[in-house]
Each structure stands twice: as C-alpha cells, then as structure tokens.
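Hi again,

Forgot to attach this to my earlier email, sorry! This is the prediction with (alpha-D-glucopyranosyloxy)acetic acid bound. I've pasted everything inline since the attachment limit keeps bouncing my files.
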Amino acid sequence: MLRDNDLGHMIKAGPSLYPHQWSWDAAFVAIGLAQLSVPRAIAELRTVLAGQWRTGMLPHIIFSDEPGYFPDFDDWGTAVAPALPAGVHSSGICQPPVHAIALELVLQQARRCGGEDLQVAEEFAAEALRRLTRWHEWLSTARGYADVVEIHHGWESGMDNSPRWDEVYAGVKVSRRLEFARMDLNHADASERPSDEEYQRYITLIEQMKSVQFDDVRVKEVLDFRVTDVFMAAILVLAAESLTRIAEDLGQADVATTERARAERTRAGVLATIDPVTGLCRDFDINAQRWLSTESMGGFAAVLMGGDDAETQRQREILLGERWCGHPEMAFPLPPSVSLDSPQLRPREYWRGPVWPVMNWLFAWTALRSGHREDALAWRLAGLDQLRDLSFGEYYEPRTNETLGSPQQSWSAMAAIDWLT
Ligand code: 9YW
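Structure tokens for the complex follow:
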C-alpha cells in the first residue's frame, strides 16, 4: 500500500484525497518505512527538510505535481512570501513537529540493521541536526507564547475541525464569501468532512496570511485565529528530547543543551495550562485572551509528554476511564478524538469523534516510553484489531468501527507496520 502511494521522493498522505506530502504524516510514515528500508525512510525526511522556509518553518504540505487537492500551491499564493525558498512548492503554515522523533526512531532501526544503512542514517542525522534545531527554535520564538506553541490555523494542529477550535473559528470574520471548489468532496462523503462554513473560514485565514506575505510578525496583527496548542507543544517536548539524544550521540553538546532546556521549558508551559477542575490541558485563545475548556483528545497533552507524576496519572486514568477509551459503547478501547459522552460528539465527522489509527500509535508509543507497558500493549492489540480488514482508513467510527474518510491512508499503514515489526 505504501508502495502504491509512493511518488519516489514522497509518499502521498492518501491515494486520491491527499496527493501530496503532509509534514507530520511524512514523519510518522518514515517511522514505518524504516522497517522496510532505512534509505527510503531517510529520503522521506529529506524531502520534508528540503522544504524548510528561510525562517526555519517546516511547511505543512509540500506539493507534488498531482492535481486534485484544494487548496493547491497556486491557491495558497505562498509564491509572494519572501521566506519561501526558490523551487519549493509548499503551503504557508506548519504542522506538529514529529520529525526529530522520527529521525531518532529511524536511527535506532539503522543501528539494528548496521552496515550501509547505519552509515547513511548517521550522515543524514548530522545534516538534519541543524535544520531540526532551526525548526524547533522557530516554534519556540516566532510561535512561542507562554512557553507553549501558538498556531494560526486549525490545519496547523493537524486536528483541523476539532471542537477545540470552535470558539476560535467563531471569531474568524468571513468578510466576503469566497468562491472555490471543494475537491475533497470528490473523494470522501460530505458527512465525514468539515462543512462549507468551516471551509469559508479556513480559506479566509489563508487570505489574511497572504495579505501580509506570510510574514511571521505582521501576520499576528491581521489574523483572526491565534491560539496556543497544548498537544502540539507536548509533541515539541518529545521531539526536543529526541533531538537532545541525537545531538549527544553526535557529540554536539551545544545543541543537546539547547534542546534539553527547550523540552523543560515547554513541558512546564503545558503543565501550567491544566484545568484544576477537569485535569485536562487547555488551549488559550490569544486574540480573545481566554482559556478554551472544550474537552477533546488534545487535552491529554500531559499523558503524551509526561512530567508531573500526579497530573499525568490523573489524565491517564481519565483517558482509560469510562468517558474515553473505557466507554462501554466503544468498538475498541482506543482514544477517540472526542468522548462519546461529549455534547460536541459527531461520531462520523473527522476530528469530532472518530478514532484515528495514527493517534492510537502515538499514545501507545508514548505509553511505552513512559513505562506504562500494559497501556501500550492494550492499545497496540486493539489498534491492530481495528485495522484487521486492511482498508487502512483515515479514521473509524468509534462505536461501529466503520472505515471513514480516505481508505489506504499512509500513516494508518505505518501504525500496523511498526506494531507488527
Ligand atoms: C485536509 C493528511 C492530513 C493530516 C491532517 C488531517 C487531514 C487535510 O489530512 O487534513 O485537507 O483535511 O486533518 O492531520 O495531516 O493526512
């Protein structure tokens, strides 16, 4: 399946709905690819890094030549951005920084293989280190807010239409209705995708960014969407820790010190967002200067990154409990994007309830890392069971396990490969 989605230098996120390289998809996919071919995994990460903007940002989509996705490179209009390097066809926003985590796991696999794989991987790691540090630095500076990470579009979170962002999107002013064709609806059922109203707001934000040529400073003055993202920040903590270890192995003590400090600072920033009542991490609407308390998978940032033992344990119990994985109506005891008991639940609609295999993998991997082997094993077994019909759906209905969205989604296959090897 990954071979079918492979364009040589990039794996399409999905065969027809997503015919380009998405940034966090590529990082996850590289982790699975490493089990099949270390050089191919490295080629995937190389394509991601080659798209790096002059500012340090890794863009969320690198466009292939394939048609069929909206908004494409011309719709984005990033050609006006001084920060876009020559020859790069990309969007103008980012996605969660899974890349250093992927590099560490690819290196681990290369060590198991030894020989040429190891040599190629170590050479690449030495090259990638500087770019990954610049990427993390950009997230902590251009996008640093209260030691968390600020995002400018729901697409940056990777959880596009999660109820986490409803209140923020309500403040996005669609001053003139935009005319565009929703290509996604040619490949997936409208009931499983964001609505037209949501798309009007998504594209309005791109227009706002374009009006200031995607400038990191000026964009903050014109954007209707500025919010901190605790889940993305927790991923930055994990990535900074991976980069610390990679830098230590390469004898780059300065980088290791910087990344260790980044991880500590960001972890403290995320823990400071915990709602004392619910125990979950909260995003903060910067424009409106208010906390966002809508419950979603994003609130479990402390489970992902660890830190304060009591808070992490409390979140872990909530996640495994009756409102979430342990809800009696769940087809499998896996983390849904929204609780089945939530008033916001829409069980077929994207990030508003479905279970995402790649998120199962992420939670299982972090559980293993933090010593909760039994959680990791349970999620791995249930996650494999979910994928049993080999359709590798993008997401699944939480009660019936019906495959939804795009079938043959690359990062869903990655979860299976990594769990089985
Ligand atoms: C879109 C590719 C991407 C993921 C996102 C997911 C979806 C793109 O697909 O967004 O056009 O809706 O929300 O996390 O990277 O798999």
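The longest helix spans residues 115-140. The pocket of (alpha-D-glucopyranosyloxy)acetic acid is lined by residues 13, 18, 22, 24-25, 158, 160, 184 (CB under 6 Å).

That should be everything now.

G.
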